[in-house]
Amino acid sequence: MSEQARLEYVPLRELRAWPRNPKNHDQQGIHDSFRRCGFFSRILIVEKTGRIVAGHGRLEALLAMKQRGEAPPARIQVKDQDWLVPCIRGLSFES
Prior knowledge:
The chain is of the alpha+beta class. Strands 1, 2, 3, 4 and 5 form a 5-stranded mixed beta sheet that branches. Helix 1 packs across helix 2 (56-67). It is built from 2 helices and 5 strands, in the order βαββαββ. The protein has helices at 27-37, 56-67, and strands at residues 6-11, 43-46, 51-54, 77-79, 82-91.
């Protein structure tokens, strides 16, 4: 991991999933957690690719909530019509 990891708020529409994400996520469970606790676990982005390395289920749940017209969970900022998602940027890995 890089020493330059940093927290940034990234517009939801700009987050790009890793195309080979191997997991199936419990979307209802993630949604329920967001409603109960808010959004607290940051999405991780690899700087070289600009793609998510951790947080695919959270991304899917946020996209579904926004599409349904729901209010964003706590700790998601809103600017104009964009949901701003807290992400850790600046990560790099050997492979």
